[in-house]
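re: ur question from earlier - yeah i can do the single chain one, its not a big deal. heres the input i used so u can compare w yours
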Amino acid sequence: MTAQVDVLVVGAGPSGLALGIDLARRGVDALLVERADGLFPGSRGKGIQPRTMEVFDDLGVLDAIRAAGGTYPVGMIWRDGERLGEHHLSDPAEPTEDSPYDEPWMVPQWRTQQILLERLEELGGKVAFGREVTGVTQDEDGATAHFASGEPVRARYLVAADGGRSVVRRAVGVGMTGEEVDPLPTLVADVRITGLDRDNWHFFPQGEGAEDLLAVCPLAGTEDFQLVARFAEGTEVDLSLEGVRRVVAARTHLAAEDVTEVRWASEFRPRVALADRFRAGRVFLAGDAAHVHSPAGGQGLNTSVQDAYNLGWKLGAVLGDGAEASLLNTYEEERRPVAEQMLRLSTSVHRGETRRGGATRQLGLGYRESSLTRETREVPGPVRAGDRAPNGTVAGVRLFDAFRGPHWTLLALGAAGAPGLGDAVRLVRGPAHATYGTGLFLVRPDGYVGWAGDSAAGLGDHLRRLGLRL
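and the output i got, formated as tokens:
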């Protein structure tokens, strides 16, 4: 018999796991399947941007993420065994009440995924490992995933979170347009090394060319280093222990035997690509299945998690709250432009045109132009509908604490006439606020202001579209 679920998520990477968590806490019947026998073992996406830290706060994993990682070390330039000086890789920032997570937080991707899986299981969800999807068929009522082992799974909606070579994306006929950002082959490996301190991110430039760069970064919360080495075009990259030892000995002052272990290694050529669509019928694309980034600037994992965060509450609203199915159309409308913007940004950072800083932290992303956004005030204040909802304190309530959970939040700031609300919307009332100004602000479950007004006029209609009632 064909198993049936409300949502089938294909792929247990960061986007798939984050989506699974969001659906589980909403009581949606969802199943995650993963082709591999376990989680991804490498460090690849090691940078968690401040906006994603806010997402992780809401999903209930922030404490574990903070305990597992650390801040990025200052870069150190080496030549001929001598330290030439420090190199600051990003513009500094200080935490504020509005934005308490100020800098990227380093956690190896394998550990981030472990934490997300633990949270998913805590909420009653699970991942079925060793389940390889070979094809997808769909009709007006749902989609069916076919597996190498047989036993298809039928779902009302299917989410492709199965990476840049997504089988699901190809099965539903969605193209992907992209280009190689850099033709040079690149080695990335998690290694154990003696003879290097863990206080710096070590860079070993050999000359003017980029093809012989080697960098070694201590991975916070572990005993490992992430090694990145670039090679001349056409080079056959050796991923073995001996191969890694040779490149380290050739480009640094370290001896080959100082590399004691290679725990994971991969070769890639940085490229960017964007799916032509993020939805095909009952199938949605998220994460690398929808957009592939250069690793520069740390945008890929973060954009992927935020895809899931956008889609999760919308699936929950349609499947559980009676929202109109057309709400799901806003996923592509909102996320594809963001992904396109982040692809441009990561490419610019890769080419040395943009420094890591304000834009790469992703706090300025928003949905002002979305059809889901309503700004009804004649004179909008500093925070407008479509913007990220900043943190703050209102009548003794920390706003990020108020926002945490699958509900909506209505901020009534210096405004009279806030309506009575059901259980799905939490009311926080207070005086005019230095950051928000004055008015009513309806904060979506994903932490963006969806509606803003001087009074409650029009709020009821907006909520009804979303399956909510005053």
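The chain has ten helices and 28 strands. not sure if urs matches, ping me
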